[in-house]
Amino acid sequence: MAKLLVADYGRENLLALGSPLVDTLRAWGHEVVEAEQSLDVLQHASRAHPDAILLYDTLSEVEALRTMLHQDTATQGIPVLILHEHVQQMRFTDMIVVDPRYRLGKSPRQFDSHELQRLLEAAFPAIQRHGPEK
């Protein structure tokens, strides 16, 4: 399986719900390196030597990150995969955790697992399919 650098930051600091993207990739057998902010993406990419970097299209700095990664000789050969993110609308009161009974049941960040599988298959044709059924 592939070693993937995933930038799925800013999502669960208040909610402590974990990352559905990271959980899915690990369940499919991939090794995942997580980045907490843009600078981490650049640092981890040159240190961890991932097979690919996975970014959400909603990250405001996605194009700047892609440009910097392609300009750096240490990271320019690493494919950058862009995944469309579906953001669940939340009210401020949804983020206040007073009692576990009132906590959101899942992360507000969602993605299409079929789209994720297509991105991975395009980047790594030799990888066996472990994702959702077509």
Uncertain runs: 97-105
CATH class: Alpha Beta
CATH fold field value: Rossmann fold
Supply the number of helical segments. 4
Number of strands: 6
Cross-sheet strand order for the largest sheet? 2-1-3-4
**Net shape:** globular
Mean pLDDT: 76
**Name of the CATH architecture:** 3-Layer(aba) Sandwich
Q: How many angstroms does the end-to-end distance come to?
A: 20 Å
Helix content: 25-40%
What does this structure look like?
With 134 residues, the protein is α/β, with parallel strands linked by helices. It has one domain (3-123): 3-Layer(aba) Sandwich (Rossmann fold), CATH 3.40.50. The chain has four helices and six strands; from the N terminus they run E-H-E-H-E-H-E-E-E-H. A four-stranded parallel beta sheet has the order 2-1-3-4, with helices on both faces. It has a two-stranded antiparallel ribbon with strand order 5-6. Helix 3 links the parallel strand 3 (52-56) and strand 4 (80-83).
